Amino acid sequence: MRFSRDWLAEYVELPADNEELARRLTFSGLAVEYVEECDGDLVLDIDVTTNRPDCMNHYGVAREISVLFDRPLKPPAHLDDADEALDAAQLASVTLSDERCPRYAAKVIRGVKVGPSPEWLRKRLVAIGSRSINNIVDVTNYVLWELGQPLHAFDLAKLAGPAIEVRAARQGEELVTLDGERRKLDPEVLVIADGERAVALAGIMGGLDSEVTEATTDILLESAHFDPRAVRRGARQLAMHTDASHRFERGADAEICAAAATRAAHLIAELAGGSVVPGVIDAVQGGSRSWRLEGHLEMARLNRFIGVEIEASTVERWMSGLGFELRPSPDGGWTVRTPGWRFYDFERRKLSGAVYEADLFEEVVRLHGFDAVASTVPQLVGIDASPTPLQRARRRVQDHLAACGFAETISFAFLAPAQATGYPAIGAVDGGCASDDLATVQLANALSERYSTMRPSLLPGLVESAQFNQRRNATSVALFEVGNTFLPSGQELPRETEAVALVHGGLATPGSAWEPQPNRDFFDLKGVVESLVSALLPGASIEASKTVQPGFSEGATAQLRLLPTPGSALDGDGAGEDSGDGEVIGYLGQLDIDGPYPLYAAELRLDGLVKDRHVAHVEVPSRFPSVEVDLTLTHAEAVTWRELASAIELARPQDLTGFSLKDRYRGEGVPAGAVNTTISFSYNAEGRSLTHEEVNERHLTLAREIEERFGMDLEAGEG
User: Fold this and answer.
1) Which end of the chain is more exposed for a tag (fewer CB within 10 A), N or C?
2) Does pLDDT of 14 surpass 50?
3) What is the model's pLDDT at position 572?
4) What is the mean pLDDT of residues 80-84?
5) pLDDT score, position 578
6) Structural contact between residues 297 and 333, judged by C-beta atoms closer than 8 angstroms
7) Residue 165: CA atoms inside 13 Å, Cβ hemisphere, count?
8) How does residue 82 score in pLDDT terms, banded at 50, 70 and 90?
9) Are strands 334-337 and 325-328 parallel, antiparallel or unpaired?
């Protein structure tokens, strides 16, 4: 906002050093963006924050300057009407029919002559970026920028009858505003009406039918106060923003209505002739209302809060200069009563009916100067609490998946209703699926239909990010997200479940023209999930079984269970039968969506992977070399890797330290319905080197048992 130095000088003696003026204002919370010359005047562009409508005018800024530089403040002339006669009430009346207008004051000026404004007034308005219209309208704008109170002048002869009513607009009612636009209204909009129709949008803009023109002789000058929320809703609905609505939306001074009307009326009479009708029409909703709030300011607490010792007399002078009323209290502080022009600033954050103490501290510290407070490192009292198991698990998940080549994303927790039912609800008690009739958590005041439902799964946002990359020709994607999902709980708050979701697809490595370029697939994702579970729960394992889930391809989706005992592994084909043992912690599979390459996804509940009973332990590896032995087994294709792995664990010979799937082959030389599975075994003794005879003895025993159970007779074609 632009402020004229010459204009400010009418109310307070300004320092000669403009840089010092700008510096002090800036460090008191009124940031001066720049200073420029304008037609012999100096203009300060000040960034007035939204909570300080009291400084969106010259007198309010002058009040701040008077306190900062300890100089007297001179109020404008004609703020009080000495004549107590109520002749104005005989010419017009006001009825407040809507609680959104708590006060409406009006003055009547008769016999005016509308014409150009004098040079000094035009110059003032031009300096702050406003244009001159005529002497009547210019005075209302002048008082707006002087005192911060929006005013509006009606041509009294154009009003139907002397009665003014502040009411809600009628459904379908129309009004042509001063900008020439026809506005269609509804009861959300507050209007000023005469005996027949709406003549102005309350707190926003006047109507064209009652505007002041060169033919106007009698004026009804409006100076009202409107509820900030009512003006904000009306202006937003009508897509309007004016100087008046800007101030009313942030909270204008309700106590200055009559004084501002009196000030403007006398200026109009001075510049446009005519006479001010004695008295102010001042209607108040529901009787008198206090626009003052009370709080407590204690010096000892103030100085501890700021970290600087300030004299009590200085604090009293500063606060009194800003309009606060102070009454001494026994603790060496004061009971503080806020001025009316700061009502909305303090009312927004009042605590249990009283002003929030830290807000009063802020008033003092900003006047002291934020730059004058020395920088110190805050002292930490006590010991920080250690992370919870869930917090530790979250950090390990992030580190592990980043090490696996996945990039972390953060998605909106809000979805469209159709998205919410597109994937399984990971937070369901039974790990069940989402469906068209899935109960979801709906927002009571959603930003839009697109963001009206809390997510029951992390996958919708994650998949959307993956497809976004695909559409931009990314040759591969590998993304994960850790966050909360939400389902109805039957209580006031929804049930939150922390989960981790992964999506990947495309090229696994860049490759070259001479090398193959493998794609990320189901088994790659399965390996990442297995490694994640092992990192969180050393020694634990999961099993996969066929399932059908929304959003996933049928036959390529597995439900994941955390096994109660270690030793099992995931099904190599993701095609095993559900054993029914263990806790369901998630699922993985191929997504049923189109794209340049398939996408594979998994989602797991983190709470299922946080078990206090699992304690990490370290095994010191043997310093002696191990012996690697392979076994190729021809078996029925229906036999899963989980079955083979379980059998090996049950028959585990001495010194077998590990085994893994090396290869699975179908094709020439293998009977139909069969598969060759090559398994790699590792033997190692802790305190010595194993001989080949020892390894052969152990391995042959294991191999005979596995072949007897699963091996297929190639000649007979059966096991």
Assistant:
1) C
2) yes
3) 40
4) 59
5) 44
6) yes
7) 14
8) low
9) antiparallel
- Among 545, 640, 540, CA closest to 586: 545
User: Looking at residues 346-374, what average pLDDT do you find?
Assistant: 85
For residues 114 and 661, give the distance between their C-alpha atoms in angstroms, rounded to a whole number: 96
| Mean pLDDT of the chain, nearest integer | 88
Residue identified by tokens 């050093």 is: 17
What is the arithmetic mean of pLDDT over 569-588? 58
CB 107 within 8 A of CB 278: no
The rounded distance, in Å, linking the Cα atoms of 412 and 414 is 5
For residue 524, give Cα distances in angstroms to 32, 347, 404, 527. Answer: 58, 58, 11, 5
Give mean pLDDT, residues 352-363.
86
Average pLDDT over residues 658-669: 89
Distance separating alpha carbons of residues 482 and 390, to the nearest angstrom = 12
Q: What confidence tens digit (pLDDT) does each residue in 469-483 have?
A: 999 999 999 999 999
SS (H, E, C) 179-230: CCCEEECCCCCEEEECCCCEEEECCCEEEHHHCCCCCCCCEEEEEEECCHHH
CA-to-CA dists, residue 274 to 144, 333, 716, angstroms: 22, 52, 121
Instruction: Compute the distance between CA of residue 627 and CA of residue 436 in angstroms, rounded to an integer.
Output: 55
C-alpha span between 605 and 613 (Å, rounded): 17
Q: Structure tokens of 407?
A: 């990039």
Kindly tell me if the per-residue pLDDT of 110 is higher than 90: yes
Handedness of CA 127, 133, 139, 140 (dihedral sign): negative
Query: Which range, of 102-106, 381-385, 654-658, averages the lowest pLDDT?
Result: 381-385
How would you label 597-612 residue by residue, b for 16+ Cβ within 10 Å and e otherwise? ebbbbbbbbbebbbee
Amino acid identity at 577 = E
Return the pLDDT at 609.
81
Distance CA 650, CA 642 (A): 12
The number of beta carbons lying within 10 Å of the beta carbon of residue 29 is 19
Q: Containing H/E element for 552?
A: strand 552-562
pLDDT for residue 257 is more than 50? yes
Extract the runs of DSSP E, i.e. beta strands, from 353-429.
407-408, 414-415
pLDDT tens for 328-339 read 999 889 999 999
Instruction: Reduce the DSSP state of residue 174 to 3 states and report it.
Output: strand
CB-based contacts of 382: which residues, under 8 Å, 6+ apart?
none
Give the other-Cβ count within 10 Å of 290's Cβ: 10
Q: Provide the token pair at 509.
A: 């490595």
> How far is 355 from 339, CA to CA, in rounded Å?
12
**Residue 667 falls in which region: left (phi positive, over 0), alpha (psi -120 to 50) or beta:** left
Instruction: List, for residues 189-200, the tens digit of each pLDDT value.
Output: 999 999 999 999
CA angle 663, 667, 668 (to 5 degrees): 120
State which of 3-17, 385-399, 450-464 shows the largest mean pLDDT.
3-17
Using an 8 Å Cβ cutoff, are 8 and 14 in contact? yes
Q: Which strands make up the sheet holding 583-591, listed edge to edge?
A: 407-408, 476-487, 495-506, 599-605, 583-591, 552-562, 542-546
- Compare 298 and 608 and report the one with higher pLDDT: 298
* Helices then strands, each counted (H, E), the chain: 18, 30
β-partners of residue 481 are 501
Q: Coil, helix or strand for 151? A: coil
Q: Between the CA of residue 269 and those of 133, 137, 210, 334, what are the distances in Å?
A: 17, 13, 20, 44
Query: In sequence order, what DSSP letters do the residues of 240-278 get, joined into one string?
Result: ---HHHHHHHH---GGGHHHHHHHHHHHHHHHH--EEPS
- Calpha distance 502→599 (Å, rounded): 10
